[in-house]
Amino acid sequence: MSARSRAAAALAAAGLFCAAPVPAQQVQRCESPDGKVTYSNTQCPEGTQAVRKIEPDTGPSAADQKAARDRAQQHSRELDKLEKQRQKDEEKAARERAAAESKQAKQDAECRKLEAKVRMAREEFDNATLEQRQRADRKLRQAEDQAAVCKK
Q: Could you give the CA distance from residue 1 to residue 8 in angstroms, rounded to a whole number?
């Protein structure tokens, strides 16, 4: 499981924990004759009178909780899908890089061969007798023409 997937799962679990119903307690607003206000989740303190009861928030309904769980699961699936696509894209890019490097290595090896051929043809031309010079010159020009593609 990737780090994003673990994070999404943890987030979803935290959301479900927070959405769990908590037993609600009723709170009362209590006022003393001199106007002092206190709040209590039990009976009002002595010398004060309950003015009104404050109903606690009941929290999300079961339908809201289910919808939140469904959204969290959907987001987790989407995150997994994106992660898989990212991995595929990275693998494809790695394959393309490897193919390009292999092609470049082959081209480099071929260029080294052509450069060696030019060196040999130049040596042959330099060492050729007068009768062999014309043939050696053609051979040298041909080798240089072939090696020219490597200089581009």
A: 11
